[in-house]
Amino acid sequence: MKRNAQRALTTLSLGTATLLMASTASAIEFKVNDTDVDIYGYAKLDMIYDVDANLNNAIIRGNIRMDDEDGSDGHTTMSANQSRIGFTTRTMVGGDVLKTNIEGDFYGGGGFTGGGGEFRLRHAYGVWNGVLAGQTWSNFGNILSLFPTVDFNGPLGQGGGRQSQLRYTTGGFSVSAEDPSEGGGIVNSESTTKHRIPDLTVRYQDQAGPVNYAVAGLARFLEYDAEGSTVSNPNMSDDSATAWGVMLEANTQLTDGITLRGSVTHGDGIGGYLYLSPAQAAYVDGQGNLETIEATGGGVSISVNAGPGAVNFGYGMVVADLDDAFDEGGVAGTADEKYASAFLNYIWSPVDHVTYGLEAGHHTAEQVDGQDGDAVRLQAMVMYDF
Questions:
Q1: Domain 53-79+127-385: CATH architecture, name and number where available
Q2: Per-residue pLDDT tens for 63-120?
Q3: What residue spans define the domains of the chain?
Q4: Per the count of CB atoms within 10 A, which of 202, 282, 346, 382 is most buried?
């Protein structure tokens, strides 16, 4: 049963990472020769009402209107894009278990902006003798500080995302080389971004008394090369910069029914390794120099068991320092530089394989020029898992 709970945690989005933890009954399991196969998944309906601007199927914070902008209020959306299916295998090979996991959802084909319905690969990896190869959550990503949300995009300010990678784990220590192209590009590089070296991460996870904690580090090499390209800035040639990031997260059970979580992530040139950051990793200034963008994120949450489920409250924010980029013309004054979100929900499972959720969220955005705005979202879900 523990294996099934861990499998469910692996399959879910950042926002819904713990929704199935209470449902540990076996999925569809069978054996093929020496391989144990486990097929799992769920069908989920999201029913959404945006009180203000339309934030689409999953919260697109760039859609939040500034206070001085006109626009229509009140939008209803219903979506099943988060529904997913996957399978895991376990095979004894050379004295150790070879594990594989392939999984997808239906957010492909513009699923975040109102379309969707096309199958999208989420995870495709194998693990043997401590070596993981394939696509799954970044080694730099948050696990311990995730809290359940009904919205797919979920909490802000977390580290990581899904990356193609090669990772080695021994005990609580892990290192990885990850795809550099997925971590956030370069602003104003006019399609001249270059990737030569994989991003490198290191992570350590342990427990100290009642506190589970993890620390992680990130090193990146950012580069652009305009040779042979037609660009608008005559000073653009080629340049590179070293980027980095650090992450700290923890959780603890205050009582049997109360869990507290928190995290902070910071970096210079961190880009998309800071989940839902408003900024990319770097920009090219007027002299053709590549300049990294500093960004910080974090959040806290608390879950309280109540009846057949739990009440969850969480707050997260992420802010990027875009002042220099604005002064150099790398970004416009209307570019977003800060997002913040607060979620309050109740998620419960009256019987095995059935989960319901009700959620209210308040979301804010602030631009480089000081303009800000906010939006309220009300959301409900029905999820049937197997």
A1: Beta Barrel (2.40)
A2: 999 998 999 999 999 999 999 999 999 999 999 999 999 999 999 988 887 777 899 9
A3: 53-79+127-385
A4: 282
| Helix/strand/coil for 325 | helix
CA–CA distances in Å: residue 96 to residues 38, 128, 172: 18, 7, 18
Task: Scan for tokens 């199958």, then name that residue.
Answer: 119
In order of 106, 118, 312, 315, 355, the CA distances from 381 in angstroms are 16, 21, 15, 21, 8
Between the alpha carbon of residue 295 and those of residues 159, 245, 258, the distances in Å are: 11, 9, 31
CA-derived radius of gyration, the chain: 21
Tokens matching residue 154:
């979920």
The rounded distance, in Å, linking the Cα atoms of 34 and 298 is 44
Check if the beta carbon of residue 339 is closer than 8 Å to that of residue 61: yes
* Angstrom distance (rounded) from CA 144 to CA 175: 18
To the question of pTM greater than 0.85 for the whole model, the response is yes
Distance, CA of 129 to CA of 121 (rounded, Å): 25
- Cα 233 to Cα 361: distance, rounded to the nearest angstrom: 42
